[in-house]
Structure formats: C-alpha cells, structure tokens
Specification:
By secondary structure, the protein is α/β, with parallel strands linked by helices. 36% of the residues lie in helices and 17% in strands. It has a 5-stranded antiparallel sheet, with helices on both faces. A hairpin with a 2-residue loop joins strand 6 and strand 7.
C-alpha cells in the first residue's frame, strides 16, 4: 500500500523504484495498485474512508486471484494495511509496516503544521518541493527532483492532494492495533524527516507479537537511502532467510563528458541561447543513455557522467551525443574508465579517474597507472597522440565533428576488457539494528 499519492506507471521511470520493486518481486508475487482517487485509479467526487479503501484491497486481491497476501504498507498507507489485517485476517498472511502512522499527529503534530503544508501544496505542488520532507538526501539531485515533480503531478492535482490530507487527518487506528493477530513487522528509520520514529515504536508496542527494526537514515521513501537494509529485513521476515549481501562493487565503464570550449561558447551565444543549448544537451544525453543501456550518474551544468556495462556502448553513446550536438555548433570532450566501481555513491573514484582522463586539448592521453588491471580511454584533438606504455590503439574512427579526428585507446585485453580484473573481496558491515521496541 503506497503513501497518500502514487502512480504505478511512473514508479517504473525511476531506477531506484525499479530496483526496489524488482527485489521485492524476487521473493514474492508483487501486486501494486493506486488507491482510489490517486494515480491511475479513477477520480472520485468524495474521498473514500479507510473502511472503503480496505474494501478496495479486497477487490484487488479478488481480481488477481490472490486468496491471501502479505500486506506491505508505507507511510499513511500502513494505517490502511493495518486496518485490513485486523478486519480481514483470513486474507492477510503477514503485515509489514514502514514509516507508518497510527494517528495523524505522528505525521503533522499540529493543525498549524498541516496548514503550512497545505499552503505549500497550493504554491509548489508539481515542482518537487516536497522532496525535502520525503527524501532529503535526494534533494540536491536534479534528475531525481525532476522525476519527483512529475510524480507529484501524476499522483494527484493540488486540490485532490489537499482533500487526501484532510481525509488523512481523521486517521487514528490506535484502538485497532491490539486486534491485529497476524505476523507483523514494523520498520522505521530513526531520523525519518516526515514521520517521527516514535510512531513506529508505538505500533510495535501495541501490535501483539510485532517485530520491530529501527534503521538509520532520514529518508521517508523506502527506495531511497539504504533501501537494501529495508528489503533484507522484509525478505527475512517473509521467507525466514536473510539474503546474501549484494555486491557493492562491479566491473563497468564510466563515461564522463562535457561541452568542449564551454566558456567561450557561452560568451559567444549569450545567456538565453546558452541555456537553450544546455536544455537540448541534457535531453539528448538522456536519450542516448537509454539507447545504449547506460545509467545516469550525474547530469548538470555542461557535463554528465554515466555508467555502462562495457566500453563499446560508452564510446558509441559519446559519439551519438557528439553527432547530435554538431548541428547546434557544439561538441563534447570525453573520458572513459573501465574497472571496478562502487555501486553506491555515484561510482566513487571511477568518475574522478574518467574526469582526469578527459582531455583538455592535451597532447598525451593520461593513464592511471596506479589502478592496474583497469582500462582507460581518452579522446583529444589528435595533436601528437601518445598512448600510454603498454596500451594498444585498437580502432581509429572519424572525428567527433567534420574535419576532426578521434582516437580510442584501450588498455590490454580483448575488446577493451581488462585482463585479470576480478572484484576485490569486500565485506559489508551492517549497521546495528534495534530489533525490538521496549515495553
């Protein structure tokens, strides 16, 4: 059960959501739906009560031929999930609550705070401004903020959102909690910016036999932050088996590129035309990332970083971006790094290495000898090209624009793949969990 607004189609446009749902589906049959009045569900003249929404869960389970299911409730959706578990135990095999409230005061403690948020909805809904409350760690990420802004708009209109919040102000399932007699797991992040951790502790104390896991973090959205910790707890609770730790490093290629001669080009174009060029640049970069199966790491200003499963696709992506920019009178300079990268934190040092390789009208390709077994590639203007010792030029191609040359150089190994580049042993240290709420 999602929070107060959702859109099941738009979830699949955000990679962190996709990873989260695919992990859930790896050990369960995953059923998703938008609550009545939100997302892809029909709009209604009057917002339904919790009891009516519980009937909707029943109808969805019937429609997909599911006699009983583990109900996973997020945020205020958890209150609905808890009510369903208490009133329909025969259809509920287990209950999982994340960042959930038993009473609305855990979400907005005072009427004044609710009114402030309603004014924020009036003024900024659809711009992504609420991200500071629901996923503060992602607030600086322009790409995620753009997706969240669209998710707000596709989840509900400002008027519908205000009605939903006013309806949610009536939520108080505290008397229902002792009547829940199905296995229950309560998860809450200690510094959740939207719902106080005391809400999770209260639920765990008052649901008979509930397990409680308190996780570090500030984000209210479960797929943001250390989502793997959330998923691992759910999987162990539902299956009895804790999954093996996911690898934190992988072999991949990082492509870093920026507009060549950005400063003089910006001065020549002027503010308006430069900003238009940057919009076009970002749009076509994202198009080529998707085309060549890349994953965006960053895209801001006049540059980007992206991750690919191999150097060939990264090179072709850079060429495609360059060719698309040529009619606009612009070009890119690009650097590649293939090697082990960190999955968390935007690929870690790999981006820095690729940025260092990225040519600055230099006459020699830079090579990071301190990373043996890794592969590096740089493009430059072709003035006195000198590949690093031990590197082989495996292909020469037409230039990035008319009349220029680009040379590709990969380290030793077939098709640009490093020889003997195996993942280093890595041990994940789990943060300590509070596994039971106190009495």
């Amino acid at each position: 059960m999602p929070g107060f607004v959702s859109n099941v189609e738009d979830w699949w446009e955000e990679p962190s959501c996709v990873r989260f749902f695919e992990r859930l589906a790896s050990f369960s049959r995953l059923i998703l739906f938008d609550k009545r009045g939100t997302g892809l569900s029909d709009r209604v003249a009057e917002m339904p009560t919790l009891e009516e929404r519980a009937d909707d869960i029943h109808a969805v389970l019937d429609a997909v031929d599911s006699p009983a299911a583990a109900i996973f409730g997020v945020s205020d959706g958890g209150a609905l999930a808890a009510l369903f578990a208490a009133s329909r135990p025969e259809r509920t095999s287990a209950l999982v609550l994340y960042g959930t409230i038993a009473a609305f005061i855990s979400w907005f403690p005072t009427a004044e705070e609710l009114e402030r948020f309603l004014r924020l909805v009036d003024d900024t809904w659809g711009t992504g401004a609420s991200l500071a409350r629901y996923a503060p760690s992602m607030a600086p990420d322009a790409r995620f903020r753009d997706w969240w802004a669209r998710h707000e708009r596709q989840g509900g209109s400002p008027g519908a959102v205000k009605e939903l919040l006013r309806m949610s102000a009536e939520i108080d399932i505290r008397p229902v909690l002792p009547a829940i007699h199905v296995p229950a797991l309560v998860l809450h992040r200690r510094d959740d910016a939207a719902v106080t951790v005391e809400a999770g502790r209260y639920l765990a104390r008052h649901i008979p036999g509930a397990q409680y896991v308190e996780l570090p973090g500030v984000d209210h959205l479960p797929w943001v932050g250390n989502s793997e910790a959330v998923l691992a707890e759910i999987e162990e609770f539902l299956t009895g088996t804790r999954p093996a730790a996911e690898p934190e490093r992988m072999l991949a290629t990082v492509l870093v590129a920026s507009i060549a001669g950005a400063t003089p080009l910006a001065l020549r174009l002027g503010d308006r035309r430069w900003l238009d060029l940057m919009e076009r640049f970002r749009a076509l970069a994202r198009r080529e990332f998707e085309r060549f199966r890349g994953r965006e790491l960053s895209l801001s200003g006049d540059g980007f970083a992206a991750r690919f499963d191999g150097p060939a696709r990264a090179v072709r992506c850079a060429e495609a971006v360059s060719q698309a920019l040529a009619p606009l009178g612009a070009d890119i300079r690009a650097g590649l790094h293939t090697g082990e990268i960190e999955l968390a934190g935007g690929a870690g040092v790999a981006v820095q290495i690729a940025s260092w390789i990225l040519p600055r009208r230099c006459s020699t390709l830079k090579h990071a000898d301190e990373h043996p077994g890794d592969t590096h590639c740089g493009w430059h203007d072709g003035h006195g090209f000198q590949p690093p010792a031990g590197a082989a030029v495996v292909q020469r191609a037409a230039g990035l624009d008319a009349g220029r040359r680009a040379e590709r150089s990969f380290g030793p190994g077939r098709a640009g793949c490093p020889q003997g580049a195996l993942p280093h042993d890595h041990v994940r240290h789990r943060a300590g969990h509070v596994r039971r709420a106190g009495d």
